[in-house]
Amino acid sequence: MNGERNGVRTINSVRMMNGLRWMCAAALLVVAPLVGGTPSALAQDAGQGAWAKAGPLEARLVSSVRAVGDLAAVPLGLELRLEPGWKTYWRSPGDAGYPPRLDWAGSRNLKEATLAYPAPHRFSVLGFESAGYDVEALFPLRAQPVAPGQPLDLSLTADLLVCSDICVPQIVKLSLSLPTGPALPGDSANDVARAQSLVPRVGALGGEGLVSVTAVRGSGAALEVEATAPDGFVSPDVFIETDPPLSFTAPKAVFSDNDRRVRLSLRVPDAPKDLDLSGRPVTVTLVDGARAVETPATVAPMAGGKPMNDGVAAAGGGLIAMLGVALLGGLILNLMPCVLPVLSLKLLSVIAHGGRATGAVRAGFLASAAGIVTSFLALAAALLAVKAAGGAVGWGIQFQQPLFLVFMVVLVTLFSANLWGLFEVPLPRALADRLEGDGLAGPFATGAFATLLATPCSAPFLGTAVGFALARGPVEILAIFAALGVGLAAPYLLVAGWPRVAAWLPRPGRWMLRLRAVMGVALAGTALWLLSVLMVQVGPAAAGGIGALMVGLVLALWVGRRLPSRTGWAGPALAAGLAVAAFALPLTMGPTVGVASATGTVNKLGTDRWIPFDPAAIGERVAAGKLVFVDVTADWCITCQANKKLVLARGAVAERFTDPALIAMRADWTRPDDTIARFLADHGRYGIPFNIVYGPGAPQGIALPELLSEAAVIDALNRASGRS
Questions:
Q1: Beta-strand relationship, 611-612 and 662-668
Q2: Nearest to 334 by CA among 487, 501, 496, 519
Q3: Whose CB among 136, 272, 422, 666 lies 3.0–4.6 Å from 417's, allowing a Cys bridge?
Q4: What are residue 182's phi and psi, to 5 degrees?
């Protein structure tokens, strides 16, 4: 009888825990927008001019600095916002349009202002090709004052063509004044720097760069552009400028060498019969996601006088292949340690299902799979919103947000306390009835919780799929994230297909109480790991305070369980207050001295040979004959920690790192850092871990897989040094 009562009490407790998971799913929708953060567009602070509206267009001048200092060139930006469906144009607009026309008459102390163009997007409408920008754009400007150190008063009249179904020229008058004083960073400094990083890099044919144009050939009205990228191409596009201007079709791509090399074929539509592109000077702008390179070239004769076979294009096939990669990456993600606590919770649920009907077991596992896929789609939607707002996006970067980490610490602590039997969630009768029997809300929330804890992990193929998605449009992002969700949900779908597996598990009984306690300890360990990540964000004092509050929360629930029924509410009420205080603590206690910066400081790097990440120094070290190993990592990335412990810090790799000719750089992305985000984006990556080796034999770098192996690292080091 006692065993039966304990089994019934255990099942009821599991059902109550399902209620807590159901509420967790609702909380997921609240915290998803935390991913990446969004820039503020409300404040008109120092270094930001007022918005001026003209039809569907808004514009303003912004500055990277609050005052002119003694700068010989002041970094500025022309910021545009466009209503949905409207666009404006690049310096070479294509079949229609014209670029921005700027008039600085009326400005004081301005000698010259130079406008730079970020890499454009292609717009294909009814067979017409144009290049430009939609939604928003920020054009970097370099303003040279007549007298450096004196106030700079800017007055700009901008003539901009904006088009949707119709085209309307718009004229906006803008102004911005910068006083004398130190050139401290302004509120738009990061935005201007990000826009500058999107301006195509200028380089000669075959020169060093993340993306290099290696050949430009032409015959008649046909043109071929060959390019290489050591990390592989994702969605390359090319824009050709000639004098006089010619209009080209959208390119068709053929990939080779594992996508590291691409051949792009273009034609001049309705070209004159005597047109011959061979020998003509052109400017080639090659764009691949956030990477872009601009190269002046002279078109060489095409081999055989014939264009490439344009019957092989990669657009559709690339997406289909990447969906397969995403499925595999999501499946492997189940083996990562981040998901183990959730699998433990699901194990309890499976045991509670012992003896239930096959249909009920199948429905429960299908609901968990639906929770995973839905959460991945919600995450994709949040990333799309942040990307549209100009924020940094990437896999797992919500763990850079202190409040999200606090939420996860509180949530995991509550799960632990529930497994230890310290509380059950009292639910309204209507909701409790829904969660009884065949209720699906609890299993659905289990899937949502699995997605939450899976995001700090990376796995083979995961980074490739996420990088492909985030470099493309909304359709590709939603499709790839849906495939990742299906991959992660595969074990649940497998059990749903063969639900009799649940019947092989033992019946509920007293042994489940011990199992629950062990799993509660496992979840408490997850909470401690989250606190260690939070310590980097807010400092040891604040993180320690939150940990103490969580201990108090557990004690309050323990005491409340033992109080008489009339006063038993006091324990949960105190626990709720401690949870609220945990969210307030990071806001009242800033990071303390000694907390590592995102680029790595001495106390983060320790006493080993790792040095802080400095992308500008990589080329100099390689030119001097050195090897440079870059490790982009974060405390919240469990795969990164496994790579360091199992590969980088032991055996032949650790011995190789003692070589004075090898420079080891560690880029710590635990906290947001625009430099690291741009470095990842330049390599077509939006998640970590990311490791790359540079050397005399590989000046453009050799990217390593997400999960490192000793053989892969040693081989990359040998190749980069020119040994093989």
A1: parallel
A2: 487
A3: 422
A4: -60, 140
- In terms of domains, do 207 and 236 share one? yes
Secondary structure of 671-685 in the HEC alphabet? CCCHHHHHHHHHCCC
CB 260 within 8 A of CB 232: yes
CATH number at residue 232: 2.60.40.10
Q: Domain check: are 121 and 243 in the same one? A: no
d(CA 19, CA 427): 8
Locate tokens 């929360």: which residue?
553
Q: Could you give the CA distance from residue 459 to residue 672 in angstroms, rounded to a whole number?
A: 22
Better-scored residue on pLDDT, 363 or 170 = 170
| 3 state SS of 106 | coil
Q: How many separate domains does the chain show?
A: 3
Residue 397's H or E segment, with its range, is none
Q: Report yes or no: 461 and 677 within 8 Å, Cβ to Cβ.
A: no
Separation CA 250–CA 236 (nearest Å): 11
Query: Mind listing the pLDDT tens digit for each residue in 125-144?
Result: 767 788 999 999 999 999 99
Pairing verdict, β 690-695 and 698-703: antiparallel
Enclosing domain of residue 138: 52-186
Is the model's pLDDT at 51 over the cut of 60? yes
- Residue 380: inside a domain, yes or no? no
Cα angle 310-316-322, degrees, rounded to a multiple of 5: 125
pTM for the predicted model, two decimal places: 0.42
Q: Is 165 exposed, middle or buried (0-12, 13-18, 19+ CB in 10 A)?
A: exposed
Pairing type for strands 236-241 and 281-288 reads antiparallel
Name residue 106's amino acid: G
Mean pLDDT computed over 226-253:
88
